[in-house]
From TrEMBL:
It is an enzyme of class 3 (hydrolase). GO terms for molecular function: hydrolase activity. Residues 29-52 are annotated as: Disordered. It comes from Pseudarthrobacter enclensis. This is Glutamine amidotransferase. Residues 2-257 form the Glutamine amidotransferase type-2 domain. The keyword Hydrolase applies.
Length: 289
């Protein structure tokens, strides 16, 4: 299945090289099992989004490695893709950008004709440039956020609530980010999503390196070793015992001050819950761990 990675480091831009390339279970390492594309989303100093993505596995993409070493941002969103809907093309590769926000998704749902009609009704069908269910879900979140006067949390709640009530759903694990805020959702229990609230001040002094086994890693992750950060990933990426699985239905918001707020705005499961047996064989294969 696709892998998600999100990082919020507060107001100070940092590198995410450790998590993208060097961690024991880095996103690059995970991409050896997810061959259909990879992308990194960041934000410039003025808050403008920047996306670098290609329809190649991250581990064999020199551009991914270069960007992972060079990019700095207050927030990061990265994704490695195992395609379930849509061809292996740039336009179908995550993350997606709309209204200055970035989005990535792990999961699948059916009823694309019905969500297309919903997007037409809300006058946002033009936001969808590719073939994926993921980009359609993002367009619905964008539409509902606009209708909620820019409240992204409310937009997520309305959009996911509509999909959960109207369409057959396997999983809607998502991350949405701006330069100052990040939202992550695990829904329902189908696929895991983990959160790590890392506070070096609560760790033994001096601040512990991200992975004490490697001086090379320690020297390249100095910023994050001494700074608070909140991370999200499809699976724990290193040996830190602080990784915890998000609960099914948990929507997490991380604000500019790194305060974490958790809500549960959805029913325990969608009205029409799909299983792997309900998917075509190729789509089912893309959703296996």
């Amino acid at each position: 299945m696709c892998r998600l990675f999100g990082l919020h480091a507060g107001s100070r831009p940092v590198h995410a090289t450790f998590w993208l390339l060097d961690a024991p279970d880095s996103l690059s390492e995970q991409s050896r099992r997810e061959p259909d594309g990879a992308g990194i989303g960041t934000f410039d100093d003025d808050g403008g989004p920047r996306v670098t993505k290609r329809p190649l596995a991250a581990w064999e993409d020199h551009a991914f490695a270069r960007e992972a070493r060079q990019l700095t941002s207050t927030t990061f969103l990265a994704h490695v893709r195992y395609a379930s809907t849509g061809a292996h093309t740039m336009v179908n590769t995550h993350p997606f950008e709309q209204d200055g926000r970035l989005f990535a998704h792990n999961g699948a749902f059916h009823g694309l004709d019905r969500i297309d009609q919903r997007l037409e009704d809300l006058d946002v069908a033009g936001l969808v440039r590719g073939q994926t269910d993921s980009e359609r879900l993002f367009a619905l979140i964008t539409a509902e956020s606009r209708r909620a006067d820019g409240d992204v949390g409310e937009g997520i709640t309305r959009a996911v609530g509509w999909v959960a009530a109207q369409l057959p759903v396997l999983a809607l694990n998502i991350i949405v980010t701006t330069a100052t805020d990040l939202w992550a959702l695990r829904y329902p229990a189908t696929h895991p999503l983990y959160i790590l609230e890392r506070d070096p001040s609560a760790e033994p002094a001096p601040a512990a390196p991200l992975d004490a086994r490697s001086h090379r890693i320690r020297s390249r992750s100095t910023e994050l070793s001494v700074s608070r950060s909140v991370l999200f990933a499809t699976e724990p990426m290193n040996h830190n015992p602080g990784w915890r699985p998000m609960a099914p239905g948990e929507l997490v918001h991380v604000g500019p001050d790194l305060e974490v707020a958790c809500t549960f705005p959805f029913p325990d499961q969608p009205k029409y819950l799909l299983t792997l047996a309900d998917l075509e064989p190729s789509a089912a294969a893309s959703q296996m761990s």
